[in-house]
Write a structure and sequence with these properties.
Mean pLDDT: 83
Oligomer: single chain
Distance between the termini: 32 Å
Number of domains: 1
Helix content: 25-40%
Structural class: alpha/beta
Strand order of the largest sheet: 1-2-3-4-8-7
């Protein structure tokens, strides 16, 4: 139950960040799926929108390989960038400005996700 509450808080925070960028969000209410939201950010880069397919996971390092493959397929079909947004990577809190790789997909903390939505550079992996 505590994990569900934390995930809901993380999703709410992510949605607030998207709203601050005037992004359009398609939120899926089924946490058993390999993604939780598709976010379209207007005027992201060179007057083109940025599209992201997001999975919110408290421990970003605990995504199954099957879920990652689903996320990759969905990102290709929707022409979106797949991202996992989390709080922890294993036993450690995710660092700001760092992108972690999970089976080939980047996972970031919520502050780093904000920087991505704001189209700020300076991320390291």
């Amino acid at each position: 139950m505590i994990i569900k509450v934390m995930s809901n808080e993380l999703i709410t925070h992510m949605l607030n960040l998207a709203a601050s960028r005037r992004a359009k969000v398609l939120l899926v209410g089924d946490s058993s799926l390999s993604y939780d939201a598709i976010i379209r950010v207007p005027n992201y880069r060179d007057h083109e929108e940025g599209k992201f397919i997001i999975k919110v996971k408290e421990d970003a390092g605990r995504m199954s390989r099957e879920s990652i493959i689903d996320l990759i397929v969905l990102s290709r079909v929707s022409n979106s960038t797949p991202i996992i947004v989390g709080i922890n990577y294993g036993d450690e809190e995710m660092a700001d400005g760092v992108a972690y790789k999970v089976h080939g997909i980047y996972a970031v903390g919520i502050r780093t996700f904000k920087r991505i939505l704001d189209n700020e550079g300076g991320l390291s992996s």
